[in-house]
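Module 6 notes. Inverse folding takes a fixed backbone as the condition and produces residue identities as the prediction. Think of it as a translation problem where the source language is geometry and the target language is the twenty amino acids. Below is one complete input and output pair. Work through it position by position during the lab.
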């Protein structure tokens, strides 16, 4: 399949993951946030009020066999929303603490990973992140940069459910090669726009620096 976009080690395929994955070479790390099947498009605050009400991509979770196919492509794996899937027991897990201060949103999100490490927590509020969301379940760039830092030897990354491309943007910032797959062309377009805006060095990203500082403090406590 011909890439939708390719530049400086970042490749985007517009299509179904099940069709694209068999043609790809193995990678070092799977870093992804697949649909959970919770019908996010029905949420007024998170979706309909922002024009995403007609979306259907989150009507059902990704089939287990498809997620396993993606896992087989990588040496290490980080799957946000892994609690929605039948994944094996693992020593490490990751938590995004959203610092919600008692608001009625979820306090945190969970990622399953088979990285051989102790559990880790990243603390950052999702308010006003990255210039505004273009996807209802968009993760912060700082969060994905942090996740990548837990696999420092991974030079090639795969995100087969890339949405608006946050994993790819984080990889560009950190100098990692990345392949993304997305079935919705409008999100492929958004990802290309985000990638074309350039990548600041990691150390001047205030959200990443703050998150990294909290992470280091939690280790030394």
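Target side of the pair, the amino acids:
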């Amino acid at each position: 399949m011909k890439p939708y976009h390719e530049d400086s080690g970042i490749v985007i395929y517009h299509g179904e993951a099940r069709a694209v994955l068999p043609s790809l070479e193995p990678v070092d790390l799977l870093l992804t946030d697949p649909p959970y099947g919770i019908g996010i498009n029905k949420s007024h605050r998170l979706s309909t009020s922002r024009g995403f009400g007609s979306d259907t991509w989150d009507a059902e979770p990704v089939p287990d066999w498809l997620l396993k196919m993606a896992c087989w492509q990588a040496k290490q794996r980080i799957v946000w929303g892994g609690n929605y899937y039948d994944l094996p027991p693992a020593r490490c897990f990751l938590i995004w603490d959203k610092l919600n201060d008692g608001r009625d949103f979820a306090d945190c999100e969970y990622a399953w990973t088979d990285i051989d490490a102790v559990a880790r927590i990243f603390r950052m509020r999702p308010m006003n992140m990255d210039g505004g969301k273009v996807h209802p379940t968009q993760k912060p760039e700082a969060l994905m940069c942090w996740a990548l830092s837990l696999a420092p030897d991974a030079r090639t990354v795969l995100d087969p459910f890339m949405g608006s491309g946050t994993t790819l943007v984080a990889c560009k910032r950190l100098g990692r090669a990345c392949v993304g797959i997305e079935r919705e062309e409008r999100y492929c377009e958004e990802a290309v726009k985000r990638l074309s805006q350039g990548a600041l060095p990691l150390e001047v990203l205030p959200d990443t620096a703050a998150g990294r500082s909290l992470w280091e403090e939690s280790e030394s406590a």
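Reference fact for the lab report: The first strand starts at residue 5 and ends at 7.
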